[in-house]
Fold:
Amino acid sequence: MNRPGAEERPVWAVQTNHTVEREATMEDHPNIRVIAVPYDSGHPGLRMGAGPEHLLDNGLGEGLRSEGRRPSVTTVRHEREPTAEVATAFELHGLVSDQVRRAIAENEFPLVLSGNCNTAAVGALSGAGPEELGVVWFDAHGEFNTPETTTTGFIDGMGLAIAVGHCWKAMARGVPGFSAVPEENVVMAGVREMDPAERGRLDASGVTVVGAEVIEKQGLRALAAALNELKTRVGRVYVHLDLDVLDAGKVGKANEFAAEGGPDAEELEAALGMVRESFEVAAAGIASYDPAFDADGRVLRAAIASARALTYPASRSG
Structure:
């Protein structure tokens, strides 16, 4: 029976409602549970909220099928009315946490497809559990504003700040399993667009920032060094991929906030592969894709390749 607020379907039969029959798999080759959260700012299907279903309807699910794995899809839906940006976001956090926890318990790899970063990250981190857990976050933006520093009121610009316990603390305590991630256990990669106050907060924090300019000058060895340092403190990571980390000029715009200067699709895939080889990936999230800005499908193809890089079995180093 499905849990409240969630509906399941197999990825290769979109119109049906039954769950797939799960086959026994090796520990390093689990089936995948795609957890779709089609919301943007509390609104279902709007802007980036259209991204999860567009990805699933245009090849992502099929791209994850290999070596006998049969990915399933669970779509999370809000229940409380009326919708409101903050209240609905935290309701979704709780529903995602529940689905991630169930997936791990059933030896499935949880991959969250979300319109907003905060929903994927806070929900997945809460469901994955805090034990030896770090974060590797790919994003063009800092996501480190708080209600005191934001000039837009956009809660999705606070996703990482919520995850490390800097804001919305009372609301976060209501998310089952939530535990703030220590700042020093976070690596932020590809960032290049921040508000001045946000940049000051991030610079003053313990988060390791490997900015787009650093990667452009030093290549992926700069990220490798940060990952090696993180590996001395944690064994598991949640990997967060905001698709606007991709270079808007080289690849295309993932959403209206996309900026030039980040990695191309191949560089991003290589970076994700480095993470997979270095850590046990407890869960992953792909967020912030608005198909209205991706007319030629280049970001879509990069997203599918990234999903495969995040979920394909890897032999861990070290």
The chain has a mean pLDDT of 90. The radius of gyration is 18 Å. The longest strand covers residues 280-287.
